[in-house]
Structures are given as structure tokens and as C-alpha cells.
Amino acid sequence: MQCALHTAGLCYSCQWIDKPYSQQLADKQQNLTELMAGRIIDNLLEPVTGAESAFRNKAKMVISGSVERPILGLPIKQGVAIDLCDCPLYPQSMSAVFPLLKTFIAKAGLTPYNVERKRGELKFILLTESRASGGLMLRFVLRSELKLEQLRNALPWLQSQLPQLRVISVNIQPVHMAVLEGEQEIILTKQESLEEQFNHIPLFIRPRSFFQTNALVAEKLYQTARDWVSVLDVSSMWDLFCGVGGFGLHCATAKTPNISLTGIEISAEAIECAKKSAQAIGLTDIHFDALDSTRFAESHHAVPDLVLVNPPRRGIGELLCQYLSEMSPAYILYSSCNAQTMANDLRRLQDYQVIKVQLFDMFPHTAHYEVLTLLRRQ
């Protein structure tokens, strides 16, 4: 992949862009192998890949410049603002939206927030695209509600220019810190969630829900989890840190009759999306609750056949590892966005044998990757 911003020394987000893609994969696989050293692995599978460019379904743009000439891109460094509208990681369908957003900022009078002066209103624009429908979810992160009415009044023009806009919201983030969003979300459209679809499973994304940024590889990740579970002797499972339910819904439908599923996620918004998906595909023996995953596990004595965990970068931690060891489900399926913390957790799960491990290259041109690991109680 070629990138003019990287060549000019303006953006270093893709640290490995100068490295041949085959070498990137080899280095990631080597890193995973080193992290898993000391554990016997029955099957270390080849990495799963997707496109090398135009794969992102989400843009997170810092807004700088002026009302008349806004800049969408990176935070200002040494007095210079970098525009990312031509970043090759975005598909053309998203790149075509950015010029219209710049025009809208001017029409609505949304003054870009100036970090040094602590003045202005518009901090970020967050854009998400559904690969299934081409629909868009657009979020404006404002310092306050001062410009909210102006934004509302200007929206009809933007909606006429972008009929694919499904969900539009405003997030209020008043803190002068490097924090992406605040607690208050104001939805400005009748539709409150954007529908995506992976492997014929509908998934719904609300403004504050987490969702993978590489849809093609994420779809392969979910399908792999389903395939692995389909050959296991399981009839019940927990999906901890379940998000909008992607893993759990795929695995629940891996067998006939369907696997009984309990999904747990701290975000109430994500849980509402998961429930909507389960209803859409007609699943009945499904329960989703907005709870802390570790506290849920500690307070329930019934042992499922399978526990699926998909934690944030910090991993599942010592307490949950200890509890899983004590409750001893037959299988644990661990999906990780940080192989280092996953490796730490696996060292705490010594009663489990590593059956399969596979790397998913969700983030080409960086050192980051996702990994799926299947564990069986010895």
C-alpha cells in the first residue's frame, strides 16, 4: 500500500507500511509463537487476512482549522494540522463523504475546538459505514450544547446530500482532555442503530457501541468461532464481554438445536443491540444482560459447557481466570485484541490444553492483530 502522508512524514499511524505485507504477517505470527512459548499447542493455524487498503468501516477525525476551512484528521502537532481525508485505509464510499462534512461544518457554523485556547465547539467527527447496506452512522462530538440548535437546523441539507445517513447523533464531551467522547449522547434521527450483517447474522450498532473496524476480517473471525464450536459437544455457553453479540449469536447457531446462550456486557447500549439481533433471527434460549463480566461469573454457580471471552486490551485478569479454573467449563474460547495479555491469562489457566490458535490480521501495516484460541479442560 502506498500512502502520500506517510511518505511526506506527516502520519505514522501505519508503522509497518514500508514492510512487505508477507513479512508483516510472518512477524506477527512469530510474535504470537513467542508469546505462546511454554504451552503445548495442538494446532497453530495460518493467519487470516483481508484487504491491505480501504478496509476501515470507521473514521475518527479530530476537527481543527476554521469554520470556513475545517480540517478532518490528526491532532495538531507543532502547529500543523494533518488532513486524513485521502487516507488509503478508507474505502472510496467513505472518502467521498468527507468533503460534504466540511461544507456542512461551515453551513452549521460549528467552530472547531482549539485545544491550546480551550475555545470552540466541534471536537471530533465519527463516521461508521455498514458494509451490508452502505448506510452511515454519523456522530458529532461537541464541547457543549451551545451549537446544537444550529446543527439541527442545518441537518436537512446534509441529509439531502447523503441519503445513506441512517443514524445521526451528538455527543457532549466538555472535558479539556484527550477523551474521545462524553456520557451524554443526543440522537437526532428516528433510527437509533445501524444494521450490519456478518454471515447472515444481523448485528446492530448504536452510537456508543464498540464494533470492529475491519468488517471483512471480523466476519471471518466470527465464522471461525462458529466452525470451531460446531464440532464440540456443548449445549450451553456464556459469552462474556459480549459487545453487540457477534460471537455469541454465531456460536449459538452453530448447532441444531441451538446452544443455550447467556451474554454479558457492561454497556447497556450494546446489550440492547444484542437482544435486537437475537429477536431478528428468532433465537429464544438466549439471555443478554448489562453486567460486569467478572462479577457475573463469580455470582453464578451453574457451569456452562463453554465460556467465550472477548475482553478489552487488558485481558480477563487474575480474578476471572481463577474463577474459570474453579468452575471448570469443558471449553474456553478466548478472542483477544492483545496477545500479550491473553498469554498472561493463559498462564493462569494451567488446567486447560490449547487446542487451536489462529491469528486474524485486523490491523494491516501495524504490529497489532487479533487472535482466537480454543482451550479444553484437561
From TrEMBL:
Binding, S-adenosyl-L-methionine: Q212, F241, E265, N310
Catalyzed reactions per annotation: uridine(747) in 23S rRNA + S-adenosyl-L-methionine = 5-methyluridine(747) in 23S rRNA + S-adenosyl-L-homocysteine + H(+)
Descriptive protein name: 23S rRNA (uracil(747)-C(5))-methyltransferase RlmC
Lineage: Bacteria, Pseudomonadati, Pseudomonadota, Gammaproteobacteria, Enterobacterales
Function according to Swiss-Prot or TrEMBL: Catalyzes the formation of 5-methyl-uridine at position 747 (m5U747) in 23S rRNA.
Pfam families reported for this sequence: tRNA_U5-meth_tr
Encoding gene, per UniProt annotation: rumB
Organism for this UniProt entry: Budvicia aquatica
InterPro entries xrefs: 23SrRNA_MeTrfase_RlmC, MeTrfase_TrmA_AS, MeTrfase_TrmA_CS, SAM-dependent_MTases_sf, U5_MeTrfase_fam
Keywords, sorted A to Z: 4Fe-4S, Iron, Iron-sulfur, Metal-binding, Methyltransferase, rRNA processing, S-adenosyl-L-methionine, Transferase
Domain of life: Bacteria
GO biological process: rRNA base methylation
Family classification: Belongs to the class I-like SAM-binding methyltransferase superfamily. RNA M5U methyltransferase family. RlmC subfamily.
E.C. designation(s): 2.1.1.189
GO molecular function: 4 iron, 4 sulfur cluster binding; iron ion binding; rRNA (uridine-C5-)-methyltransferase activity
Catalytic center residues: C337, C337 (nucleophile)
